[in-house]
Amino acid sequence: QVQLVESGGGLVQTGGSLRVSCAASGRTFSNYAMGWFRQAPGKEREFVSAISWNGGNTYYSDSVKGRFTISRDNAENTVYLHMNSLKPEDTAVYYCAADPGEALLGDRNWKYIAHWGQGTQVTVSS
After folding, report:
1. Cα angle at 116 between 115 and 117, to 5 degrees?
2. How far is CA 76 from CA 22, 23, 69, in A?
3. Which of the two residues, 107 and 81, has the higher pLDDT score?
4. How many Cα atoms occupy the beta-carbon half-sphere of 13 within 13 Å?
């Protein structure tokens, strides 16, 4: 089992920046692809970004490409999501995800993800 704990959410103004972090424990971190999803009120959970086991490949949704950057530190068992040029439509609960297979790097469908964090709220004010 993998335990994931997010931190770093908060309130920021439009155009601002924020970094959310996810600390993992319980299994070998480098065996897992890591990623982020988000869920706004009344909407389905959606893919935001993912990073491969060694950090060599990264993936982004079209809505965040060019503004968000995902990274990981396997020595610290942590994955980060750096968010720049934030918009009100980025407001959501951001969930950290871990998966040992292709669910994050291929399907990117939240229904098939093996492990989730509890989520951290990001609110962008207009």
Report:
1. 140
2. 10, 8, 18
3. 81
4. 0
Q: What is the mean pLDDT of residues 74-86?
A: 97
| Positive or negative: CA dihedral 45, 52, 120, 48 | negative
**Regarding predicted confidence, which is higher, 29 or 39?**
39
CB 80 within 8 A of CB 11: no
Residue 88 tokens read as: 């009100």
End-to-end CA distance of the chain: 39
Backbone angles phi, psi at 30, to 5 degrees: -70, -5
| Contact criterion met (CB below 8 Å) for 103 and 110 | no
Q: For 61-114, give the DSSP string.
A: -TTTTTTEEEEEETTTTEEEEEE-S--GGG-EEEEEEEESSSIIIII--GGG-S
- Structure token pair of residue 68: 């968000």
> Scanning the structure block, which residue is given the tokens 């990274």?
71
